[in-house]
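Record type: monomer structure entry
Structure origin: computed from sequence
Chain ID: A
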Amino acid sequence: MDYTNYSTGMLQKWLSQSEQNEDYEVCKAIKDELDARKKGEKRKLIFAAQMQAIDQTDKQLKTYQIARIKAYSEEEAIEFCRSNAPYLEIVGQLLAEISTDESNDEMIEFIE
């Protein structure tokens, strides 16, 4: 099983459960993923978050992209929003940004 798409909290929960069940192969795989994250061998991804609010100028409900969340997985970004900013919704992973500055020669900036 590929554990890279799961949040650190979920992996720690599964690790505890697999230790109780004495499933040592799963324990090792989860520990390897958690260790790689701690050592910085796995980098966090950037996820775009949006919220809806009423625009006070025209009283219309509008959607605003207002935050970038760094997390190891989309699940972890969603967990972060639920516990810290429940009004935010994760849209997806941010791969590139398009500049609105017309003097910028490189209109698309790719996120590493």
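Annotation 1: The two ends are 26 Å apart (CA to CA).
Annotation 2: Helices lie at 8-20, 24-39, 74-84.
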